[in-house]
Design brief:
Layout (H helix, E strand, L loop, with lengths): L1 E6 L2 E4 L4 E9 L3 E10 L6 E7 L3 E4 L7 E6 L4 E6 L8 E10 L3 E5 L3 E6 L1
Parallel strand pairs: 2-11
Antiparallel strand pairs: 1-3, 3-8, 4-5, 4-9, 5-6, 7-8, 9-10, 9-11
């Protein structure tokens, strides 16, 4: 089994920064993709950023130029650096990983709350 543990959420003023971390642990043979999604109240979960094979990145248009996703492959950890935060970035942020143990599977973290005050 694989566990994803997120950290780094919190309350910040508009224009501020936060850095989220997601550590994957368990019987991991390989990590293909790690990403961050978010869900605001009343909204569907949406993609924020994803990184594949530790290099290829993709971002939601709403966060391009403000957020940066990266990984430490040795630690199976993904990071999301969030700068110039806006109140509309307020949401629960979930880590996702596509991981091979015996088979390839998708895994999700429990989520971490990010609140941006105006």
């Amino acid at each position: 089994q694989v566990q994803l543990v997120e950290s780094g959420g919190g309350l910040v003023q508009a224009g501020g920064s936060l850095r989220l971390s997601c550590a994957a642990s368990g019987s991991i043979f390989s990590v293909r993709r790690m990403g961050w999604y978010r869900q605001a109240p009343g909204n569907q979960r949406e993609l924020v950023a994803v990184i594949t094979n530790g290099a290829d990145t993709n971002y939601a248009d709403s966060v391009k130029g403000r957020f940066t996703i990266s990984t430490d492959n040795a630690k199976n950890t993904a990071y999301l650096q969030m700068n110039s935060l806006k109140p509309e970035d307020t949401a629960v942020y979930y880590c996702n990983a596509f991981v091979r143990t015996v088979f390839w599977n998708d895994y999700w973290g429990q989520g971490t709350q990010v609140t941006v005050s105006s």
